[in-house]
Amino acid sequence: MILDSATRRTFMGSLAAALGLAGLRPSLEVFAQNREGRQRQPGEEHPEEDYDNMAKLANNENCWGPSDAVLKAMNDGLKYANRYQYPSGGIVEAIAKHHGVKPENVLLGAGSGEVLKIVGEAFLLDHKKCVGVDPSYDSVYRYVTNSKADAIKVPLLKDYRMDVPGIIRAAKMNYRDVGFVYICNPNNPTGNIIPKQEIKMLLDTIPGDVPVLIDEAYHHFVTSSDYATSVPYVLEGRPVIVTRTFSKIAALAGMRLGYGLAPKELIERMRPFGGGGLNAMVKYGGVAALKDTAYEKKVKQMTTDLREKTTKDLRAWGYEVIPSETNFFMVNVGRDVTQVAEDFKKRQVLVGRKFPPMNNWLRVSVGTEPEMSKFTAAFKEIFPAGGIKPAKKEAASS
Ligand SMILES: Cc1ncc(COP(=O)(O)O)c(C=O)c1O
Q1: Model confidence over 84-96: pLDDT tens digits?
Q2: Pocket lining for ligand 1, CB < 6 angstroms
Q3: Exposed e or buried b for every residue in 66-87, given b needs 16+ CB within 10 A?
């Protein structure tokens, strides 16, 4: 079993020793500053004292942790802990080879979040605006407004699909002011995709000089044949930036590694804004993760199975769930989720925060089997009456 390996113990032991030497310990001030509903930043400590014992279904992480091959590679990288100019393990070349691009088309970041931030900084100079759907991964909109630019947010359609014609209209109407278009595919928090034909329509229709940022953080979990990665558009030389992360399928959220792929000219515009201060271990881990496709397959299967089992239970209990292509899903609980999340927390289950305007929709990440059982049990306690009952036929077949 992955979690019990000697490699894992050696790695975790070395890491704990390294952190102990650095004198790192919790800072309570960070917690005090936390406002209701604010998304915490990677690396910010979690405020729950009992964090280790809680079912962690709030942040779309990979509950199974990195593969043994990745842990071993990171352990090997640890020997450079005392160096400034350590070897990189060939991470940029490995990413370039993986996608059939050149190293000049790759920009590394401490998580793909850093690359998203860099895109905001590089393409929103002169108070330009970003166009995207709402709700989506709102860190992007936050970076945008922090850099004194603005976001033009296009609401989701009634069935929660992303409104591509609406994005095209907004980009055309505001053409002079648009710095870039942001697409999250699959979308966070709804978990659904933009079909490949619609991505093509978007790229073929919007003004040719507007960069399109396509965030594929959840790419590896998709099963729908209507979906396709947008990396081929980068290869064609279109003004497209695709971001990927090692935080989800590779389970390296705490180690911080992601990247952007784009034509050389766009990467060159982005590079001065950062993207480089990565630790030695994660670079080695990233190279191993790209090779470990068997582990990716296993994580995808376990995630899909548990997501489908849990959502089937919720639907049978009378609740609407948005079909998801990711390691999380949204369920309509029929009332504001802020208090609902508190109710879950009392039962040792951490769930997603509120994503306005979908105030009654709870986002739940897929956790281990015991975590999902804990979630379902808590759900039935919090909503003992069930939701709108499904039609008899459906109830009988579920
Ligand atoms: C859609 C999306 N993009 C980007 C990120 C950032 O991830 P990271 O910085 O860990 O790569 C996340 C994190 O949850 C996400 O959901």
Answers
A1: 989 899 999 999 9
A2: 42, 60, 111-113, 137, 184, 188, 215, 217, 245, 247, 253, 258
A3: bbbbbbbbbbbbbebeeeeebe
